[in-house]
Design a protein that fits this description.
The complex is a heterodimer. Chain A is mainly alpha-helical. Chain A has helices at about 5-30, 35-50, 55-80, 85-105, 125-145, 150-160, 160-165, 170-190, 205-220, 225-245, and strands spanning about 120, 125. The chains are: A mainly alpha, B mainly alpha.
Chain lengths: ~250, ~325
Amino acid sequence: MALNFFSILSSTIFLSIFAIAISLNFRISKFLNLSHGSIFALGAYVAYYTIKSGVIPGVILSAIFAFFTGVVLYFIIKKIGNGIFEATIISLGFAIGLEEILRIVHGKGYYLIVESSLTLAGIDFWELVQGLMLLIILAILFLVYNSKFGIKLKFVEDDDFLARIYGVNYEKLSLLCIALTSSITGLLGFFSSTSQALYPGIGWMPLISGILIAAITALFRSVGLIHYAKIVLIAFIYSLFISIVMC
Amino acid sequence: MKGKKEREELSKVDIIGNAIKNYKELYRKKRKLRLAEFLILVVIFTISPFVSGFYFLWLMTLGIIYSIYTLAWNCMETMIGRTSLGHAIPFGLAGYLSAILYLYIKNPLFIPVTWMIAGVLSAVVFYILSLSRDRVAFVFISFLIGTVIWILSPLFTITLNGEVYGGEEGFSLPSNPVLATYTFSVVLLLATFLFFGFLRTSATGLKFATVRDDEKAAKLVGVKVNKVKAYCSLISCIITALAGGLYALHFSHVNPEIFSIHVALFPFIATIFFKNDSEIGVVAGSFILVFASNYLNSIFPQLHLLLYSALLILSPGIMRWRDRRAKLMSVG
C-alpha cells in the first residue's frame, strides 16, 4: 500500500491544531488539560445538529459552546484545584463528565453526518478549512508573540510566579487561554465531524496523539512562535510514522 | 532546680532510646489494630456466602477483586509516593494474556502463569517510570501509556482455524462457579491485607516510607532507593495482575474495557475519602464505590461514570478536608 501524501498532510494539520491547543494550555495555564478530547466531541455533536441548517451558525455555536465550557472549567479549577496535578485531575473529571453527558443524551451508538461531499481541486472542503484554521492560528500566534502582549505571554510561559509579581494579570491570561484553546478544539471537532463516525469517546485518540506531539516538542525547549512551528514539524513526522506503520 | 538537673542527666542516648520505645509501642498497637480489622474481614467474608443470594455474592466478589486492586495500587502511592493512573495495564494485561493462552491450549491450569508474566512485564515499565524523581511526570506518563493501550486494544485480533477472536468483542474464558472465584478472591484479599498491614508497620515499611517522604534524604541514611522502587513496583504490579486475572475469570470474558480509564481511575477514586495508610479504609472505599456504581448503573447504564466525574472534580477539596480531619483527630 502506497503512502497517501494528502492523508499525511491532512493528519498533520489536524494534529498540529490539537497539539498547539494542548501546548498553549500547558505553557500558559500550567496544567495538562485533558478535557480537550471531550470538547472536541462536543464540537462534533454540535455539527451533527446544526450543519443542515447552515454552516456559519453551526461554527459560531460550536465555538461559543466550547468557549463557555472552557470558562466553566477555569472557574472550577480556580475554586478547587491547586497546582498542576490537581488541575489536571479536575480536567480529567470534567472530561469524563462531559463525555458521559453526551453518552446519556445520544446513547452508545455511532452517528454519521451524511453530507454531499464538497471538493475543491480534488481536496475535501473541510480539510481545506482545517488547513486555513492552522494558518490563521499560526498567523495570530506570530502577531501576538511579536507584540507587547507577547512579551507578557513569554514571561508567563517562563515563570508565572515572577510574572505575577511584576504585575502581569495571570488569572485573566489563564482564563483567556483555557477558553480560547477550548474554542479551537471545539471548532476542530466541528470541521472534522463529516469525515468520521461520531461517538462520545471520539476525542481520546486525538487527545493522546496531541499530548505526545506536544510533549516531544517540549523536549526542544523552544519559546515563542518557534515552538509552535516545531509542533507542526513533529506532527508531520508523527503522521508519517503512523502512516508507515499502518501500511 | 531539681527538674533542671534531671533534664541534664537525661543523656541524648536516653532521649533516642525513649523515642524508639515509643515508636515500637505505637507500631505494636497499630499491628494489633490491623489484626482486629483482619479478623472482622474474616468473619464478614465467612458469613457472606451463607446469608446472601447469587447476585449479592457476585457483587461481593467484584468488590473483593477491586479491593485487592486498590490495595496493590495504594502500595505505589503510600510507599514510594507514585500516583499511578496506568494500573489498568497489569490489571488488563493479566486478563488478556490468560484469555489468549486459554484460546490456544484450552487448559485453565496454566492461566495463573500468565498473571505472573503480566505482573512482571508491567513492573518493569513502572520501575523505569519511577526512576525519575519527577512525580507529576509519573502520573502523566502512566496515564498516557494506559490510555494508548486502551485505545489500541480493540485493534488486537487473533485468527485461529479461520475464526477471528478479539477486537471490540474481546476474548472468552472458561466459566466457573461464583463461589470458587469468591473463595480465591477472599484468600487473596486477606493475604494482601495482612501483608500490607504488617509491611507498613515493619522496619522495611519504614524504609519504604522514607523514599516516599524524601528520596534524597533516604539515600543519605543508606536506603537503597532504586531497590525499594523495584520491590514496590513488583509487589504492586503482581498483586494487581492477580486481581485482573480473577476479574477476567469472574466475568469469563475480557474486552478492551478492562484497560479503560474508568478502571485505571478506580483506585484513585476509591481512596479519596479514606486515609491511604489504612488498609481497612481502602477496602471500605472500594466496596462503597462498587456498590454505589452498581446501584447507579441499575438506574441508567453507565450513570456511575458521572459519579466518578464528580468525585474526580471534587477530589482535591475532599483530600484536603480528609487530611485536615486526620490531623485534628491525631491531635485529639
